[in-house]
UniProtKB/TrEMBL annotation:
One of its GO terms (cellular component) is membrane. One of its GO terms (molecular function) is serine-type endopeptidase activity. It is a multi-pass membrane protein. Belongs to the peptidase S54 family. This is RanBP2-type domain-containing protein. InterPro entries: Peptidase_S54_rhomboid_dom (IPR022764), Rhomboid-like_sf (IPR035952), Znf_RanBP2 (IPR001876), Znf_RanBP2_sf (IPR036443). Keywords: Hydrolase, Membrane, Metal-binding, Protease, Transmembrane, Transmembrane helix, Zinc, Zinc-finger.
Amino acid sequence: MAYSVEGRRRASGGMLPLLALSTVAEYYRLPWKPPVTASLLAANTLVYLRPAFVDPFIPHINEVWFNPNLILKHKDLKRFFLSPFYHVDEPHLVYNMMSLLWKGIKLETSMGSSEFASMVFTLLGMSQGVTLLLAKSLHVFFDYERAFYSEYSVGFSGVIFALKVVLNSQDEDYTSVYGILVPTKYAAWAELVLVQMFMPSASFLGHLGGILAGILYLKIKRSSHSGSDPVTMVVRGVTRAVTWPLRFMSGLVRFRRRRISGRGRVGRGQNGIWRCQSCTYDNSGWQSVCEMCGLGRGRGNGWSVNQGHAPSSSSSDIPLDELRRRRVERFS
């Protein structure tokens, strides 16, 4: 869950060993260990525990609370992108990570690590953006200032709600949400209401933003024929735009090669060849003497190869012995 509280972190409840035991047991039975899910679990846990080797490099929780007013006023991207990785207390962290463990393993196993990682960070940005837009809209159109100015929230649950929407989108079965049987594809909506009833300190807008981000993600993905996620589509489009000049030049080179690599002599056109009547050898139009027999090109000898059959001319016939003698003289 994403908590919208301003108090201090509560004392440890001893729940971290339970999270560690569940994670080890789940990964032990898997033939393939999903690395992105494990990395997300480790990142969230390390940010919460703040061991000595990490503490100097990560900001304090007071610097990353998600507050729409501060994000827009100061253009604070640190609050926008880092707040999901912070948690208020152990129950907050363990509840979110147990949910991420199950959903992450199922999704990453089915779609692969690279696509899953791309989807997670896309949903993170989209859920934060939708939550920001909701808070701003309530302030502008309904004069509701609390969500915009006064609420401070952290937690990975916005992303988890989005993952739940993606995971259950094609499921036609039923599932139990806090003991209530609902269609699985609508489980996120039921959990949104029930969580808010039992835990009023949870961020309703953060969870709603996650659900809407998941729905928007699915609509964008289904609208693309390739079925790729939005980030992959953007990267592919940018890559195609950047490499267009290279592909254009490569196409020109291939076109020129096709033009000059056909059969026969280069430059052979409709009137560029004349055929000797005596030996039927095709000669270049630039030559006035047959390359084969040496007979000169003149009236009655030589016609373009596209003019059909040779005209009959008995006066130009040469005896076979004479033709052989001329060939021998020419090429010896």
